[in-house]
Amino acid sequence: MNAPESPRAIVPPLSRRAESLGTENAFVVLAEVNALVRGGADVVSFCIGQPDFPTPPHVQDAAVRAIRSGRHGYTPSAGIDELRAAAARDMGSRRGLDIAPEDVVVGAGAKPFIAYTIASTTDHGAGDEVVYPVPGFPIYESQILANGAVPVPVFLRESRDFAFDPAELEAAITPRTRLVILNTPHNPTGGILRTADLDAIAAILARHPRIWIYADEIYSRLAYDGKFESIASRPGLLERTVISDGASKTWAMTGWRIGYCANRALAPVFTRWITNTDSCASQISQWAAVEAIDGPQDAADAMRARFLERRDLIVGLLDRVPGISCRTPGGAFYAWPNVSEACRLTGCADSEAFRRRLLHEAGVAVLADIHFGRRVPGDGQHIRFSYAASNEAIVEGVRRVDAFVRRHARG
Asked: Which of 2, 149, 254, 321 has the maximum number of C-beta atoms within 10 A of its C-beta?
């Protein structure tokens, strides 16, 4: 006699918010790359945006001291006083601003503050609009939608070295605009907002005093052409700008998960968000970050110098590949070459098809422009290289791209 069948488990439906939540495609592609490597494939990867250097030894030692001295418990949700003070000094001195420790909130990375800012400045389902850069960090649009706001893109154009036309920003602002997101130096293009750009943006925002600004400046120490400048340094904008920075990129601390932001009015609100979500950032990581900020900067300076060297190397090599042209990025560690002609030469329909063929036929992992939002009208096809990779990897990876294009070029 057959045993009766067990009733099929029924999974209740998910919310529309959960179903529509976006992701960060760098991690999706990285999982694909890792699966290929586990299967024996030889892949040169440029897909993930994190320093390939170890965290400086003195920062590691500070974490060990924190562990050995029993610093294992919760901290205040806003972070330990020592880190809030160190971050306030560091952010303020590099931007020419007076930032008080009580204006600073520490989080488990800088990324949560994107969501906290959108949730704190827009109301779900009310039609509130958020202006954000495209191409851009994919979590911007994901969190705008998840928080029930309306995403309004402003396009970064190759002809402007991947800054946007201030006139397009002004045209994008409506009575429903609640927040403008700025990112400099920029992921994925490596573009920076220069003095004239920031002055023009500030003049526009001065005419709209009810709009908040989220200044994503996580790459602030990786600006190569001239001194880094922040929109918050413009008259009247500090009070309504959330300055976001952190330890991940500067000190090769991505996995330590320490970010921080500064805004006097929103600091208590962000603190409550952290109490509701993470409780606090890791105490051990916070003490390591204090040492990163206040300790010797030799390692951070050396990493910056290496990234600048790599930038010049990869741009020079990419410009020699048939059908590829690459603007010199002003900051971060990303190159954003135009591959429109390379797609045509190799019979690829678009940058995503080109990316997939590079991975599976040439053993080179990059990201496509569609991983960072809709394509910019009239700007062609692009891919992203993270040059947080050794010189040897850069030379070999671009050699493979060159060989792929030449091998499949249709003339």
From this structure: 149
Residue range 186-226, pLDDT digits in tens: 999 999 999 999 999 999 999 999 999 999 999 999 999 88
Same domain? For 373 and 248 the reply is no
Could you tell me the end-to-end alpha-carbon distance of the chain, in angstroms, rounded to an integer?
70
The dihedral of CA 310, 313, 316, 322: what is its sign?
negative
DSSP state of 167: H
| CA pair distance 230, 220, nearest whole angstrom | 9
pLDDT of residue 250: 97
Place of tokens 């690829």: 348
Nearest to 133 by CA among 96, 163, 173: 163
Asked whether residue 10 is assigned to any structural domain, the reply reads no
Residue-number span of the structural domain to which 290 is assigned: 71-294
CATH code for the domain in which residue 303 is found: 3.90.1150.10
Mean pLDDT of the chain: 95
- Does 142 lie in the same domain as 282? yes
**Closest to 130 (Cα-Cα) out of 156, 154, 112:** 154
- Give the model's pLDDT for residue 206: 97
Q: Tally the C-alpha atoms within 13 A of residue 42's C-alpha that lie toward its C-beta.
A: 5
Residue entry with tokens 């805004």:
263
| Range 127-137 burial, b when 16+ CB lie within 10 A, else e | ebbbbbbbbbb
Q: Residues 6 or more apart from 47 whose CB is under 8 A from it?
A: 26, 29, 30, 33, 365, 366, 367, 386
**Domain contains 11:** no
